[in-house]
# Entry
Amino acid sequence: MSLSSQAVLVTGGAGFIGSHLTDRLLADGVTVTVVDDCSNGDRRRVPDAADFLEADLTDPDALDGHLDDIDLVVHLAASKHVDTDRPHAQFDANTRMTRNILEAMADAGVTEIAYTSSSTVYGEAPRPTPEDYAPLEPISAYGASKLADEGLLSARAHSHDLTVWNFRFANVVGPRLRGAVIPDFIEKLQDDPEHLTILGDGRQEKSYLHVEDCLDAILHTIEHADDAMNTYNLGTRTTTSVDRIATIVAEELGVDPDREYTGGERGWTGDVPKMRLSIEKLSALGWEPRRSSDEAVRRATREIIDEL
Ligand code: NAD
# Structure
């Protein structure tokens, strides 16, 4: 499906990835409506050229009257906030949003959706993990919410006229990223260049994808594949350790801190310490990431330092 001259609703479009997607779509001549409650997003990131609806998507009526002219929904809104005391709140919020969006789409006759799932649906799986790996055993409520959403989308795709592009993201990095390891290290080292506290043992080893590569992959896939329900891993073939990220951030800031490790192997409950996804399925469609994990981390570090 070609997106030019289409109307796209971007949920979570005031957030990190959604705001970059909105910029890219507008530059490509697409008509964009953004929906976001700004709980973790920033209204100022949404250009005036996009329509903006400030709404909480857990409210079943949030999209009433707003989908009539929409061709495609890209659903990025999600609570990423991990509350280990109340994990079900995050599960409830994310699955309720997806259910509400699907119902509103059905009411308005919208039949295309791209969904942003996560590597966390795999839990602790052998690497590189292919899309058909089983059993899917997420170890966090966030991962469980993504898996439940995938189930809802699959059910709707197989019983109604709905095309679903389901993307399981590795870690996405780039400008505007907040509340993640790179901006965390930058802020800590700007406060205290001599010392860095690292959550975990530093050997957590994951795949990092630059947001520009992520957007290329999403748009390429929507244009080149249109099965009723198809799932694609989205990442790089390489990984970067948390210790290596600390080194890259320190190099870019020109500091040489002592390191202190806290929290044991994984740092926080629910974190999968090693992650690398097989990207052969997207590769067969003609997409390749332009940057390795290390290159993505270094570039994002420079970009975030420039904007902080
Ligand atoms: P983000 O938090 O920057 O963006 C999500 C947006 O959703 C925010 O702007 C937030 O305000 C909005 N939102 C949250 N709850 C809402 C609600 N009830 N109603 C309306 N809006 C609401 O996150 P991101 O990093 O841009 O991630 C986008 C999507 O990609 C998410 O679904 C996330 O789970 C998924 N994902 C991201 C990564 C990553 O590395 N960034 C990895 C895997 C999956």
